[in-house]
Write a structure and sequence with these properties.
Layout lengths: L1 H68 L20
């Protein structure tokens, strides 16, 4: 008889665990969807910022070349380091 009681108790525990997981699953799915939306927004913003940085570098490049041609070596130097920003995908 004790084996039957143990089996019934284990079955009840597993059913309760299943109910609990079913209640949590929609919350996890909602969280995942929100994280995916945020990821897409951040990738879009990252792309815009990268393009803005490139445009600023293009605008600055002629001035930097002119400074170097006239012997002004005190200005900022382009190292290309900002062009190596990683995009998260």
């Amino acid at each position: 008889m004790s084996a039957a009681i143990h089996e019934a108790s284990e079955r009840e525990y597993l059913l309760e665990r299943l109910r609990s997981l079913r209640a949590i699953l929609p919350l996890l799915a909602e969280e995942l969807a929100g994280a995916r939306r945020q990821n897409a927004q951040l990738q879009l913003e990252n792309g815009r910022l990268l393009e803005q940085m490139r445009e600023l570098n293009r605008q600055r490049a002629p001035q930097s070349r002119a400074d170097l041609e006239h012997g002004d070596r005190t200005g900022p130097r382009r190292t290309g380091a900002t062009d190596s920003l990683l995009l998260v995908r």
